[in-house]
Amino acid sequence: MSVLVVTGTGTEVGKTVVTAAVAALARDAGRRVAVVKPAQTGVGPGEPGDADEIARLVPGVTAMELARYPDPLAPATAAARCGAAPLDAGRVVDTVNALDRDHDLVLVEGAGGLLVRLNTGGRTLADVAMDLPAPVLVVARPDLGTLNATALTAEALRARGLAPAGVVVGAWPDRPDLAMRCNLTDLPTMGAGDLVGVLPEGSGRLTAPEFAAVARRSLAQSLGGTWDADAEAARWSAGAPAGV
């Protein structure tokens, strides 16, 4: 795949860290990688956004954002509140296609979930994925409620004919509870594809070399890593602490 869309089951689920992890492994494999953040919300002028964080964690990646709105809201609402022009979904598609011509992998990180409105016309990240077209990687929470949210996201993907690229848990705690441990087994049955990674909580605070090492052992082979879902499930079922 040369273009991969990264969405979440909601906000603050770890999309940026997961996007950076995928980018880091692709860069380590010698691939030319670009990351596009169509809409950055909740960040003021001159403040570092998600694209900047990815550039810090993954040296050598091409990282850009296309629109920025200061209020931490859905892009369509945030643009209207500050009087800015709404994000043009066609511009997102054109930018990604242009980057795809001279990069080996282009990652598109959405804002919030799959159906959050990018503009007042009702266009969403799902529409962008359909226009590209591109598979969609789903980033999920580890805790209670994540199964329903993941299933709803998967249903939205299927309704639009979009290919799921799997599920990654974006922030796995040091001491997972029973629901979290059971979710490792149940998440792959929610329709969004296999569980293809579990990123430990706090990964985004690491240095670039530390982050690359964590990414490798936290993502599955399909994303360039060494993480194994069956081995992980065996660890917690035997009573060992789950997570990487």
Main sheet: strands, sense, barrel: 7 strands, parallel
Note the beta-strand portion: 15-25%
Shape designation = globular
Helix content: 25-40%
Strand numbers in spatial order across the main sheet: 3-2-4-1-5-6-7
Structural class given helices, strands, pairing?
alpha/beta
What does this structure look like?
A seven-stranded parallel beta sheet has the order 3-2-4-1-5-6-7, sandwiched between helices. Helices cover 38% and strands 21% of the residues. Strand 5 (136-140), helix 6 and strand 6 (164-172) form a beta-alpha-beta unit. The protein has helices at 15-28, 50-57, 75-82, 89-100, 125-131, 146-159, 178-186, 208-218, 229-237, and strands at 3-8, 33-41, 62-69, 105-113, 136-140, 164-172, 195-200. It is globular and about 55 Å long. By secondary structure, it is of the alpha/beta class. The relative contact order is 0.18.
What brief labels describe this structure?
7 strands, 9 helices, 7-stranded parallel sheet, alpha/beta, 244 residues
Produce the secondary structure layout.
Blueprint: E1 3-8, H1 15-28, E2 33-41, H2 50-57, E3 62-69, H3 75-82, H4 89-100, E4 105-113, H5 125-131, E5 136-140, H6 146-159, E6 164-172, H7 178-186, E7 195-200, H8 208-218, H9 229-237
Parallel strand pairs: 1-4, 1-5, 2-3, 2-4, 5-6, 6-7
Helix pairs in contact: 1-2, 1-8, 4-5
